[in-house]
Automatic annotation (TrEMBL):
One of its GO terms (molecular function) is peptide transmembrane transporter activity. It comes from the Bacteria. Residues 89-437 form the Solute-binding protein family domain. This is ABC transporter substrate-binding protein. Residues 1-27 form the signal peptide. GO terms for cellular component: ATP-binding cassette (ABC) transporter complex; periplasmic space. The keyword Transport applies.
Amino acid sequence: MPKSSRPRRLALAAAALSAALVLSACAGSGDPAPNAGSDAGEPVSGGTLAFGRVAAVNDLDLNQQITANNAFAIDKIFEPLVAFDEQGEIGPWLAEVDESEDGLVYTFTLRDGLRFSNGEPVTPDDVVFSLTRHIEVGGPLPLTAPIAGLEATGEREVTITLDAPYTPFLSELSGFSNGIFPAEFGGLSEEEFFQNPVGTGPFVVDEWDPNGDLSFVKNEHYWQEGKPYLDGLVYTFVADDTQLRQQLAAGQLDAIDTVPAANAAEVDAAANTVLSQTEGWSTEQVFFNTQREQFADRHVRRAIAHALDRDGIATATTFGTAEVANSLLPPSITYSANDEVEALDFDIEAAKAELAQSEYPDGFSTTLLVASGNAQRAQIAQIVQESLAQIGIEVEIESLDIAVFRERFFAYDYDLMINSGQSDAPDPNGFITFQADPEGFSKSYWTHFTDDRVTELMHEGRTTPDGEERAAIYREIQQILADEVPYIPLFFPANLKATTDRVHGFTVLPNSSVRFQDVWLAAE
């Protein structure tokens, strides 16, 4: 997203908050976004919404988490200083911000009268403590900007000074991991605090089973007047996506986090359910553990890329709801080069030729790791298995409970896996860093892939101002990754969710989070 001319000010104009800024993964504002039946009248307050999800919430420490099961519960409790809307545009949230002409000094002014869910006022000291803790922890989504100073400079003011310009700074701050919480954890230990956390978000934890459901109640001190409309929100753990759909149809759930692409049309056509289909910041991929000697071999990876018919996979498994991927970055992310990158096309003869140049010309046996309970990924796995058999690579599919699946690839205990990359903020730096930085938290998304030119360009992309020069940097990165294939982007899935026809104001953000403070339930 191109920068406006400096100095830049993100103001908290009341009209903008109520009409133009429909913001972020961590919150929302303005009138409820329309969905089917939203013409039912003015929003009404009350009721509890049951939201079905395929994974339980097991940790609420915002600086230590990254997976969607936790992130999209965390962002209901904690909110950042700035946030993004449905188009990925960044605006003020808890604070307005002024940026100096040289791009080195950012001054944040907190919203007047802002309070935590316990009723205590939010102060600059809370902001300094929260962001300092994130810097010290690091975590999977670290603040990587070159922060030289972070201090309270007024009754409602915080000033952050950078050592050098850092283009994705506000994008980085807009992520859920930069939410604000009380200084010194409100006098509790970290462990105690994150068992019953206090933030500025629309909801507060009521009851929580880390292996099951999480119940929220409304934050009575929420800064958006009259919101949230719901009295309660329950994240209901359901084992797989088929059960989710069945329980939605039966009215046992009010909304579900995942609709299988194969069932999207059915859900859309049903009389009492409403399909939500929006563009996302996600890329479905096949990942290689390059610590395995077979997949350290560039020719093997390229052979597999040629052997997979990405168009066929997308057609067979997404039923027209996804776009075929040529590049890593989804088209909805700034500087995606999906229309420009030359990917390795489906070509069995080219695949055999690449394999012949490798250390494994006669093929080999390997294991493909997938999470159970996901019919689409199970189907992709079967296609991969059949496709690679054509070039002499024998694939065993290992399907595991999602929690065990994550443990395995976090420990680099896999050969191949099917997973998705997901951006948490609108700037391309976050996606690229997570998937291509060998020194980052994920070591290139647990592939251990290293390319010196990509690393060099990645750092250049952080300091280059928005514009054509920065766009060229990300084009080159995406082309190198398409040539070296540490992972094979397959398609860009849509965010597919669904509600019953009682649910209104259900708005999905590009990172797949839902702004539940805008949701309301019509009378039965």
